[in-house]
Every structure is written in C-alpha cells, then in structure tokens.
Amino acid sequence: MSRADLKARYGGGIQGGIISSRGNEHVRLFSDDSKAAENGYRDGWLAEEDEWGAIFEYTGQGRLGNQTLAGNNGTVANHVGRGKRLHLFVAAGRRAGSGAVWQRYVGEFALDEVEPFTFRRAKDAKGEMREVVVFRLRPIGEHERREEDRIGPAPETDVRRFVASQTESSLAATERHESAEGGRAASPAGVAVRRESALRTAYESFLIAQDHSVFRHRIRIEGYSATFWTDLYDSTENVLYEAKGSSTRKAIREAIGQLLDYRRHIEESDAKLAVLLPEAPSSDLRDLLASVRISLAYREDGQFIREMF
User: Fold this and answer.
1) Burial status of residue 23 (CB atoms within 10 A of its CB: 0-12, 13-18, 19 or more)
2) What is the CATH number of domain 179-307?
C-alpha cells in the first residue's frame, strides 16, 4: 500500500520518515534506502543477533544539522510512555502509472530496553557532517526479515577517535526524556546501563578537571555490521577504560574481555587497561584484575579512587 492508503486508514500526514497521529496509538516509520544513501547511512537489520534476538537500525528524522530527540524523534524515543506502537515500513518500488511509492510492512517494533538508540556521524542534505539518531528496534511478534533489508558487513576494519564530550550518551539522553514524559519501568539491564552511563560521564568530568584529554573510539570490524564504541580513553595517561554499572563478578569478567578485544583494534595498541566501577569490588575480584594487569577505578563517598598499574 502507499502512504496515501495508510493515511486514509490511520490518519496523520504523508510527508517525513516518522508519522504519528493524535487520533490513535500508531506511529509509522518509513525506511527508504534510496534516500538514506544520499546522506551516507543505511537502515536495516544487523547481520549479528545478540542474546535477545534481532535488531533493526532506523535513522531518525531531520535533514539538516544535528538530529535531536525533539518532535517525532522524541515520540519514538518515548513511545512506551506515550502509549504509542511503532510500525515499520520499507519502500518497495513505485505504483505503476502514479509514481507513488509502495510501502512493504515489516512488523511492529519496540525500542531495545538496554540501548534504545545511539548517535552517529553522517552527512546532512547539504553534505555537512552532523550527528544523527539511530534507533535500535526489536521486533514484536510476527515480522518479515528479508535479506535485502540487512545491513551489509563492513568491508574492512575502521577505527576512529572522537572527543568523548562530543559523543552524547544515548542512555543519558533517554533518562532526560523519560523524566520529562513521566518515565517507564526500566528492566534490570536497563538500570545497570543507565548507571554505567552516569558513571562514565562523571569520571570523564573528573579526568578533564585534571587537564586530561578524553576520547572514545568508534570501531567497525571487517565482516560485522554492528558498530562498537569504547567507553573512555585517557590519552594523557594512555589508559583505556571500560565502565560497568555494577561491581559483580559477571560485570568485571565482561569488562576484561571487552578491554582486551578493543585494544586489539585501536591505534593505541600499547594502552594500559582499566575497569571503572560504581563501588569497590571484592578482594578476590581485585586479585582477578591484578592477575591480568588491569587497573581499577571506583567511586567511594562521592570521590573516585584509582588503583593503577
């Protein structure tokens, strides 16, 4: 069916990638590769599933300048709190004789609870680089997953470094908008990641106050369609940090693996490694970190304590 057909049935407009109607709970998301390619990005299914299943990445609305979580992007970001349901359509050719674009229905989606969206660099309609919102959508119930809708893997590994303060935390942005909307019940995983985000931001400020230069690395790995971000890299002391929202054994084991994996790909291959935690870990977990020469930073009584190698 066309956008006009959908308007006749559900209301709302026909222009723009995100269409919401005040008269019902439906929000329509339209993805069109031909338009996305003009601005240097691609919507689609990630080739790799995680432990919770498949992810469809959908770029937010806004043709010029940095995208924000205002307007229709805010509706998507807070769809649960506003009682809205997300329905995804993909452009599928033109209707003969009219020029109208056919819209293929993919299914109903909800934002990923742990990482609902992220920010990436892409060109705007004038060719200027800017920040875009990339929503991470999880399918609900029956859905269509075609190979042609899959984001292809990176042809080669590409690592770029960004000033940490220029890469706004998606979870911090989520918290601000959920507070404005009255909030929603977060999953335990979501709570941990929000705690991690706040910890990372506070520690970044702590380092900057000491005149340290702080960055994050964006890593795209050959053969994978997902994008990975390191937490913090202190170039002044050459330390790569991985932040965690808890000081449990599971979290620290995960941090060790992430640090070793990330360091293989970044230019600073001799970087020292450190785990950033919300509170001091047990003595046995301290010994675990020491056994692999990974330093420790944690909060205690509102201050950051560092045990560095």
Assistant:
1) exposed
2) 3.40.1350.10
